[in-house]
């Protein structure tokens, strides 16, 4: 067993462990952190597949930006876990059946018959000077230029939509106009009333 | 010597590779740690002189042993774990802070060919790894189970994510100008004297990258994550002893990293300011010739100057208000970088000499 295979199994084991912990751990912050670990480990697996550009982008986008914001939100939530776990045993049989069906479906779709070495040729190992980044750039900007442009336009629309959704047309908070504050005089605010006393204070006369 | 070589060649090839790599890593990390220690000393001295006082001058000759004394003191202090904190994450956080700051050095070239791993996507790797540093701070703030620490962590996370965008756009400008993501090729694209370096055609990106670097490392005037006067010490308020020291190591290691990247991408890396201008006979003078020719010493000089700027900023500027930091990052830096990307693209197409010819 070569070094590469050992690395694959180590990373694979960590990935499966982290992915399992994401859905079983109780604390949502821990779940988010295990998701980060899962992303990071799958990036390592992609590097083993000579896809270093995708691996680095995965770390950059998901680990570096998306999960930070996610963690940000999860940390500020005050979730009471007890009501969420009510009825766990009641729905367990249904859950097991659904999970079993999904596993069976995945098994029939993705197995050695369709993805084994008989069906798909072993990928060619490239020399050390092979640059996945360069190859990817070449393909994206030539053969797949239009799909790439369309995807970027959709992303741009999504960004604009997100901003438009959170944009408030009118300011809700009260704010002060300094020029109005400056021109205020005492007589605008205070009315001095002179009136005789209602009754004599005892001891003054 | 021959017997040593014989022992070396008898070791299996994979073990040789691992030994060599570990040796190279140590050759980078040990000088880096020493630089970090003496950068703290330099900071206290520089700020001292800026404020017309002497700074530390008691431990050793002229205070030169001060960082050693500090390190020894911090190592022997008790590490206090707050009773209701999350112990595991509390200890993990400083390590997560320091790890990325050191890992990014794997792709930094010191000279043509003198680099730990010469990967093609070096610039992307730097961006990805440095974006991981924020986890240490967020986890520290959350695991401490303290409101001040949590506020500091939230501020820091929002600030770092915001400035990363401007930083990324500045790097895209460098990528456009150099035509490569490989750091060695970025430096060789700037071959020549001062005028050939990228600082002038990418001037706005240069300033934005460096300022964003100051913000990324949570240094003054962007140090609201610590904000001593508002949230006592921010995310590391609960830390003591060595765990506290590791946060500082990470901060200073990140400062050196930002300085070295600025030097590589905008200030011509290891090229001397008069590279290619002096006659061969001047470079042949023993001693002086080496000093005048290109080499890692020029990279070190540029890093030192940029680090001095970090210290100078801290001594000069008052702290930004938090909403002003966000405004600067989103409404000033990002639009400027996008506009300048178009300008750089135009310059590259027009092949403006001497940079893009």
What is the strand and helix layout of this fold?
The complex is a heterodimer of chains A (205) and B (357).
Chain A: H1 3-24, H2 28-48, H3 52-76, H4 81-84, H5 88-109, H6 112-115, H7 132-141, H8 145-166, H9 178-182, H10 186-189
Helix pairs in contact in A: 1-2, 2-3
Chain B: H1 2-10, H2 13-50, H3 66-76, H4 87-103, H5 122-130, H6 133-143, H7 147-178, H8 183-188, H9 203-216, H10 228-231, H11 241-266, H12 280-283, H13 288-292, H14 296-316, H15 322-350
Helix pairs in contact in B: 2-3, 2-11, 2-14, 3-11, 4-6, 4-11, 6-7, 7-9, 7-15, 9-11, 9-15, 11-14
Poorly predicted tracts of residues of chain B: none
State the helix count of chain B: 15
CA gyration radius of chain A, whole angstroms: 32 Å
The number of helical elements of chain A comes to 10
The end-to-end span of chain B amounts to 50 Å
Measured by residues with Cβ under 8 Å of the partner chain's Cβ, the largest interface is: A-B, 23 and 25 residues
Assign the structural class of chain A, choosing from mainly alpha, mainly beta, alpha/beta, alpha+beta, or little secondary structure.
mainly alpha
State the helical fraction of chain A.
55-70%
What percent of the residues of chain B sit in helical stretches (DSSP H or I)? Answer: 55-70%
Biggest sheet record of chain B: none
**Would you count the extended β strands of chain B for me?**
0
Biggest sheet record of chain A: none
Structural class of chain B: mainly alpha
pLDDT average of chain A, as an integer? Answer: 83
Q: Based on CA inertia axes, which overall geometry of chain A fits?
A: elongated
Oligomer: heterodimer
Arithmetic mean of pLDDT of chain B: 84
Q: What's the end-to-end separation of chain A, in Å?
A: 112 Å
